[in-house]
């Protein structure tokens, strides 16, 4: 079974800048976060199997999260040219996604068959265009990732409750992913 400390060490070896272990039962879910999704703040609403509305309602996602005892927060911080550096922001998001996916693959290789739930930053970007708008099934379900936000979690609140920095100042941008798991020697729900 998975060890929380082992996950932290794998995350740090995978170039996470910050990590923290949180109890899944202490995660808060906010309808307002999903309202932002419905208002298409990120420009990805109704375009992906891993985002709203396809991913399902918050109460269903909350039940999914609460099947796990703990979560490891995985944060990467990337330099950008400031608030208007859109190219730098997109590059930072891609870099985070690559680091998080490599981290996830390392976990899957080390703990084959272990029941985990991985949530990344932002809408799934594994495919250039998701099959969802064409009403086709997900082409790569083993690689599709939903986001912390799609599950209705407020990243700033999550980071604060874990004692992790959220704001990294001008010229830096942080991204957060999470792996939910049931640690060794603790019974599952």
Written overview of the protein:
By secondary structure, the protein is of the alpha+beta class. Helix content is 31%, strand content 17%. It is built from five helices and five strands; from the N terminus they run αβααβαββαβ. The protein has a five-stranded mixed β-sheet with strand order 1-2-5-3-4, with helices on both faces. The longest helix has 25 residues, at 86-110. The radius of gyration is 16 Å and the shape is globular. The chain starts with a helix and ends in an 8-residue tail after the last strand. The mean pLDDT is 92.
Briefly say what this structure is:
This protein is α+β, with helices and mostly antiparallel strands and 189 residues long.
Mean of residue pLDDT? 92
- Provide the gyration radius in Å: 16 Å
Poorly predicted runs of 5 or more residues:
none
Determine the N-to-C terminus distance: 15 Å
For the biggest β-sheet, the strand order reads 1-2-5-3-4
Q: Give me the secondary-structure category.
A: alpha+beta
User: Major beta sheet, specifics?
Assistant: 5 strands, mixed
Sum up the overall morphology in one term: globular
The proportion of residues forming helix, as a percent range, comes to: 25-40%
Fraction in beta strands: 15-25%
| Total DSSP E strands | 5
How many alpha or pi helices? 5
H and E order: HEHHEHEEHE
